[in-house]
Amino acid sequence: MMEAKAKKIPYLVIPIFIPFGGCDHQCVFCDQPKITGSSVLPSTKEIQNTIEEYLGTWKRGGRKEVAFYGGTFTGFPMDVQEDFLKAAAKYVEDGRIDALRISTRPDCIDGDIIKLLKKYHVGAVELGVQSMVNKVLELSERGHGGKETVRSVKLLKDAGFKVGIQIMPGLPGDDKESVITTGRRVRLLKPDFVRIYPTLVLRDTPLHEMMKKGLYKPWELEDMLEVCEELYKIFTRASITMIRIGIQPTKELEDAVIAGPYHPSFRQLVEERINAT
Ligand code: SF4
Hints:
There is one protein chain. By secondary structure, the chain is an alpha/beta fold. The chain has one domain: TIM Barrel (Alpha-Beta Barrel), CATH 3.20.20.70. Helices cover 42% and strands 18% of the residues. It has an 8-stranded mixed sheet with strand order 1-2-3-4-5-6-7-9. Strands 8-10 form a two-stranded antiparallel ribbon. Helix 4 (111-119) links the parallel strand 4 (99-104) and strand 5 (122-130). Helix 2 (44-57) runs parallel beside helix 3 and helix 9 packs across helix 11 (266-276). The longest helix is centred in the C-terminal third of the chain and has 17 residues, at 221-237. Bound molecules: iron/sulfur cluster. Iron/sulfur cluster is lined by residues 20, 23, 25-27, 30, 32, 71-72, 105, 128.
């Protein structure tokens, strides 16, 4: 069960994983089934069973949300999005869940999608931004630039959503300066929260191939800690909550990691450095 810290108020996040769902891209770093530990899309019934199961064991009250994680939610056809949202929204309508949240790409947000998300009680949208430097986005084959992120954050904020931004320091073409540039540009967008996922090389991804050909050099842990310390300072000064620093350690992830600055307690290492200064 995933429990997020929100001061002293209990907070339940019910995760529904939609691996590769809605995504027709192949970003060089991504192997979605290995990250989420699953490769099959959940049915409406499975979504509802998962929600019931979590609600049945949660006795602490507080805020409760259903989160669609793992893919590009708004990349699905509208009717598929609607089926997923409807399956979970009924729990908001009967008062057992407070809101839904989804994750998606910055170039998969438009006015119609915003209307659909609003209709089904989505309160927060997390954008996989990864970098705000176009050269890095191109080399990572993201298929969008920084301006799509600026545009989608504005659309979402104007519509009243909470906006989360995920960034990945250490992508192809990144150096310390470009990571800091990304941090500063993200700060200017004033997201409600950020996640920082240092780039790791996962088995059989395009990034793995690039590494084998000498076209990508994974970052050393020490270098990644140093730049994440700077990001930590940038976001802390702007009062932007960092809900995650370092990818969640799972057996699937650890089996898939070939190279890169992986540490199961990455956030703790960053905070120890901050506290030592
Ligand atoms: S858009 Fe997201 S799900 Fe699709 S390949 Fe890129 S990182 Fe993976």
